């Protein structure tokens, strides 16, 4: 008969922490909301609040281990970071597929927005309000709020170096 040995609690905790850390580390640091554009599902005319866009564009968002610093509603005091891979239909909590231009499929709309690879890395912060951040690459995240898609760029101090193409 073989005796079963269980890993000590601290080893299990370390493994779980190490698995969660890359989610935050991958996007850690300061980002700037660089620009905004009407979401594909926004109705023509008055669907976008210009004052809200003006309030957010140019603001900084900082992803820290234990909080997100940023303008309301992006700030959060207790994030629970998870990076998920989502299909184009899952972007903006399904808004692209459900409310987008029904003459064009979600995959085509996603490509137009700059999502070239599939699946799409998505940072779920676990914060109230459930705003997800979708990565077009290492240094750009998109999020949707009130019929607007905002583009955030990683601040230059943390930006990754451009990849060499073969």
Describe the structure.
This protein is of the alpha+beta class and 166 residues long. It has one domain. The chain contains four helices and eight strands; from the N terminus they run H-E-H-E-E-E-H-H-E-E-E-E. Strand 2 (60-63) and strand 3 (68-69) form a beta hairpin. The model is unreliable at 1-20 and 162-166 (pLDDT under 50).
Quick tags:
166 residues, alpha+beta, 8-stranded antiparallel sheet, 4 helices, 23% helix, disordered N terminus, disordered C terminus
Question: Which outline best applies?
Answer: globular
Number of helical elements = 4
Tell me the series of helices and strands, N- to C-terminal.
HEHEEEHHEEEE
**Low-confidence runs (pLDDT<50, min 5 residues)?**
1-20, 162-166
Largest sheet: 8 strands, antiparallel
Helix content: 10-25%
Short recap of the structure:
By secondary structure, this protein is an alpha+beta fold. It is built from 4 helices and 8 strands, in the order αβαβββααββββ.
Topology:
Elements: H1 9-27, E1 29-38, H2 50-56, E2 60-63, E3 68-69, E4 82-86, H3 95-99, H4 106-113, E5 120-124, E6 132-137, E7 140-145, E8 148-154
Antiparallel strand pairs: 1-2, 1-8, 2-3, 4-5, 5-6, 6-7, 7-8
């Amino acid at each position: 008969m073989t005796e079963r040995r269980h890993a000590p609690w601290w080893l299990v905790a370390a493994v779980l922490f190490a698995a969660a850390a890359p989610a935050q580390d991958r996007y850690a640091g300061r980002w700037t909301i660089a620009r905004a554009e009407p979401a594909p599902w926004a109705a023509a005319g008055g669907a976008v609040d210009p004052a809200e866009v003006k309030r957010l564009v140019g603001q900084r968002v900082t992803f820290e281990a234990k909080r997100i610093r940023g303008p309301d509603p992006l700030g959060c005091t207790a994030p629970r970071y998870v990076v998920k891979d989502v299909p184009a239909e899952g972007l903006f909590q399904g808004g692209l597929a459900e409310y987008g231009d029904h003459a064009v499929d979600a995959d085509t709309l996603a490509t137009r927005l700059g999502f070239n690879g599939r699946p799409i890395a998505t940072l779920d912060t676990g914060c109230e309000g459930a705003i997800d951040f979708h990565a077009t690459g290492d240094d750009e995240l998109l999020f949707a709020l009130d019929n607007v898609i905002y583009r955030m760029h990683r601040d230059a101090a943390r930006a990754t170096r451009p990849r060499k193409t073969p």
